[in-house]
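Hi V.,

You were right to ask for the full record rather than a summary. Here it is.
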Amino acid sequence: MRALAQVAEKFGWAIGGFAAAYTVSGSMGIALFGLTMLLSASIQSTLLRVLKTNIGPKQLRQSLILRMISFGLLAVATWLNNFSLLLLGSALSGLFVGLFWPSFYKLKNGGIEGWYLQEKAIGLMLTISSGLIIVGWNVVPVFIASMIAATGSLLMTYRIEIPSIHQQSKFFTNTSDQYIPTTQTAAALSFLEGSLFAIVLMTRRLVVLTGTIVIPGLSGILSETLFIAVAGLLGASITHYSKDRVREHIRLYWGLSICTIGILLACTGITKYWIIGILILGIGSTIIFPLNHSYVKGLLESQEISIDGFRESWRNPGRLLGALVATWIWFTYESHSAPFFFALALIVGYGAFAYQSVNQISSGTLINSKCVTERHI
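Predicted structure:
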């Protein structure tokens, strides 16, 4: 099921959606397309938490139906050159994001790291294929193929068998002081991680897809394709081959250090350093992503708190804020380096909360997050 969902994500959305938005409405199209999706995802994921929705296969199927409709709309919108219809498709994809990932993480056994490398390897092939098809042919076939893949993923959800432990979640209602720091730290880690990498992602899309800075000899679409594919695969490879040899907090510090180096290089504004910095940032963010998921889950489970979609309900608003900051800077100053000064401040804040979490785990206050991620939610 996840493999087919990845076909839709990497093949149709990551490159195809933003390429279509740029073709129809230029750089403003890229920004509005991304912001519409993030706004929709933020509202959806926040409602899940506020309404205390007990997530199950029903929500998973609903999300995939929304994804199918979204890609259908994107194909029609591109064919008709209709930007309003393109934004509607983006909004439906945002609803998918707000429903699918909380559902998937709840129903999936084990931690992210077990299938992370496989996902990125598939993503490498799909992303490159998507970029080549768009450049050499058209984006519409990419949307149609993604819609078919989402349909296949939907059909596979009917094979899911849910253990009884998944049937009901426990919701946090105790407001005593001993619980507040735990939930605040978990929320801050999710929000800051979302904001940090959304600034990087939106800036990269605006700079690269508009052709302002590209990998020498390549178009904006193919440059964006390689940034996504290569950085993702390298970061996932480091995660895969170090997860059983290096402790989690050491790998987290690795990721933070790599990201900091990438941010500093991008801050220079010098083209060759900016390109290297963006690639390094992609590697670092790929290392941090599963660890952030692990630590947030560990923080909550240490206090026997289980809130469906908690991480996504804070991460998606963080992504929205980060994307808004990047968009504002781009259209106000047309700077490809200024957003990374904000990113530098965010990574310092994220590092402080991550260090606090590591110390709590090391002191025995929290259970080991690696063990936590291998249990059912």
